[in-house]
Amino acid sequence: MKLFLLTSLFFLLTFPAKVQAWGGETHTLMCPQNQPFSCVEADRPEFKTAYPYGNSWHLCLDNRPDCSARLVAKYYLKKYYLEGEKDPKLIGAAAHLFQDASCPDHWYPTRSYFGRIFVPFAPSWVGKMEGLVEDSLRRGQTEGMVFLKYGGKEIEINQAFLASLKTETADFISSEPKESLAELEGKINSRKNWELLRSLKEVLMLLVVILLPLLAFIVWRWQKNKKGLSDVIILASVLGVVLVLLLIIKVFY
């Protein structure tokens, strides 16, 4: 029973609903003008079911240059040019993912539990980006939408930030990626497995915080009553697995 409860807790923390970042209004604002595509394309259900990697994560964990969102954006862009620039949905999805990869919310594995966003050991602004930015846009606010610190740098999300990302989006979609489709597919398939493991980092850290005192209590109880050795072994094994996974993330991600 105890092992079942621990397993249930792990899966609840690991596989909840994913959270979006930039909202539709923000994507549209950052979309290059006078183009035959929409920068909200990649969020549409019909696109997700009809195109390869349609259900892939839009996250860019730790803001890595080779995160899956940026790789899939390049894949769609490459496919768009190879197919003779005939499918505007591809370039729209590429622009969308490029923008999502630049959203600070997507630098963390944001997840929703029972309707509330919870990211252990993350800054307080994580998960609030979409609401704060879109509310500021509706009120006509141009400065100080969101202030945050990341990687030792201070970042202000304001109209200038969004305008700069709009220019970067236009530059990104203006040229065909150098990699072949096969190369991009290989990178995407390799990266997504590591990103899935990396996305567990904060959850694993939380489990360590929970399991360490619990294990200490059970060991103390076992030494006192000479009962419950199986509980000690199970918890110690689970904690060992968690620590090994954290070590793998630290060394290889």
Keywords:
single chain; 253 residues; mainly alpha; 3-stranded antiparallel β-sheet; two-stranded antiparallel sheet
Q: What is shown here, in short?
A:
The protein is mostly helical. The chain is 58% helix and 7% strand.
Give your account of this protein's structure.
This protein is mainly alpha-helical. It contains 10 helices and 5 strands; from the N terminus they run αβααααββαββαααα. It has helices at 2-14, 24-29, 45-50, 68-82, 88-101, 129-138, 159-173, 181-198, 201-225, 229-252, and strands at residues 17-18, 111-113, 116-117, 146-150, 153-157. The strands form 2 sheets. A 3-stranded antiparallel β-sheet has the order 1-2-3, with no helix packed on it. A two-stranded antiparallel sheet has the order 4-5. Strand 2 (111-113) and strand 3 form a beta hairpin. Helix 5 packs across helix 7 (159-173). It is elongated, with a radius of gyration of 22 Å.
Instruction: List segments where confidence is low: pLDDT < 50 over at least 5 consecutive residues.
Output: none
Q: How many DSSP-defined strands?
A: 5
Counted up, domains total 2
Outline, from the CA principal axes? elongated
Largest sheet: 3 strands, antiparallel
Order of helices and strands: HEHHHHEEHEEHHHH
Order of neighbouring strands in the sheet with most strands: 1-2-3
Q: What would the average pLDDT be, to the nearest integer?
A: 83
